[in-house]
């Protein structure tokens, strides 16, 4: 299991859309805007470090503003993700959804040399993880590679943002580095 396929069947329980904080990349945001016309200032928020415990302090995508640290996240309401359709309980931007959503609940395993080894299911997530289906790993790996190609650029954007120190800068000002609505 894991090299070519992973035993998994999504039950559409909604856990990923209601209980998981989605941290999109700037490229996810641009894709969502391009495919849906949604305004990033309406669907994004910035969470403080004490609001999300799963991200290591050393993660290079922490934004620094006025003595606080933030991560860019998809806004959530009482019933889940901003893009969760209230009636159908399905993703309203399924074709444009962030890479994190596309890969959830899968975990990539690498060799000590950083080479692809396999995919498994994350052990510590609330997804029921039914194993009565089969998911091909090749498309998951392509998503992972696509995300990896953009990760350095994302880190560079954060580094540029963090190096600018205007006193009144807000986390949402980060969006201006990759989204110009003109």
**How many DSSP H or I helices?**
5
Overall tally of structural domains? 1
Q: How confident overall, as mean pLDDT?
A: 89
| Rg measurement, Å | 17 Å
Strand content: 15-25%
Q: Classify the helix fraction into a percent range.
A: 25-40%
Shape descriptor reads globular
Structural class: alpha+beta
Largest sheet: 3 strands, antiparallel
Contiguous uncertain segments of 5+ residues: none
Strand order of the largest sheet: 2-4-3
SSE order = EHHHEEEEEHEEEH
Account of the 3D structure:
With 182 residues, the protein is α+β, with helices and mostly antiparallel strands. It has one domain (5-170). The protein is built from 5 helices and 9 strands. The protein has helices at 15-18, 26-36, 40-43, 99-103, 137-163, and strands spanning 5-9, 44-48, 63-65, 68-74, 76-77, 80-81, 106-110, 116-121, 130-136. The strands form 4 sheets. A 3-stranded antiparallel sheet has the order 2-4-3. A two-stranded antiparallel ribbon has the order 1-9. It has a two-stranded antiparallel sheet with strand order 5-6. A hairpin with a 2-residue loop joins β3 and β4. The radius of gyration is 17 Å and the shape is globular. The model has no long low-confidence stretch (mean pLDDT 89).
């Amino acid at each position: 299991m894991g090299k070519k396929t992973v035993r998994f069947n999504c039950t559409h329980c909604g856990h990923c859309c209601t209980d998981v904080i989605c941290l999109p990349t700037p490229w996810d945001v641009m894709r969502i805007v391009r495919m849906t016309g949604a305004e990033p200032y309406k669907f994004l928020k910035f969470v403080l470090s004490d609001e999300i415990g799963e991200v290591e302090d050393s993660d290079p995508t922490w934004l620094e503003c006025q003595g606080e640290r933030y991560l860019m996240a998809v806004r959530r309401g009482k019933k889940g993700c901003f893009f969760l359709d209230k009636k159908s309980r399905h993703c309203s931007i399924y074709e444009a959804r962030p890479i994190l959503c596309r890969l959830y609940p899968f975990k990539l395993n690498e060799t000590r040399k950083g080479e692809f080894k396999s995919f498994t299911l994350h052990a510590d997530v609330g997804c029921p993880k039914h194993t009565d289906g089969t998911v091909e790993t090749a498309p998951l790996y392509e998503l992972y590679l696509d995300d990896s190609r953009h990760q350095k650029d994302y880190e560079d954007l954060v580094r540029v943002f963090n190096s600018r120190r205007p006193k009144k800068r807000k986390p949402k000002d980060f969006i201006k580095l990759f989204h110009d609505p003109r």
